[in-house]
Amino acid sequence: MTVCSPSGKAQNWTPLALILARKSPPLQFSAIGFSFLNRQPARGSAHLLRAHFIDLTVRLYSCCNCRNHVSLHDDIISKAFQGRNGRAFLFSHAMNIVVGPKEDRHLLTGLHTVADVHCSDCREVLGWKYERAYEASQKYKEGKFILEKSKIVKENW
Ligand SMILES: [Zn+2]
Description:
mainly beta; Metal Binding Protein, Guanine Nucleotide Exchange Factor, Chain A; 4% helix
């Protein structure tokens, strides 16, 4: 589809609404929002926007404190982890979170470099991110997230 950008130049792109309408059956979304990928763009370049939309058919986990959506059920790698306060889940991804400073911690499975993970809305500590594992058998955890079961609640189940 060809549309005109604000500068009057024709550009080929597909508006988000069209992408969604093409899905069959149509998906329902509870929220569509945008955030900046580059809040302060270099001189002469444009702001980049990222679209966020929440599919109502997807099973989510939310922050126990403010119900901010923080992870998807489909991203669970393991439910057999130990957090600070009991059981915890290992996720391949997390969203709407803030990653704190890195620190070395001796965990049950050896030395790791980890960073606490906070809810981006209420700042509750939800778990941690594995930045680095020192033992070969633990490398699969690098870049993954531990969220404590007691800090997240199910949404859309
Ligand atoms: Zn929260």
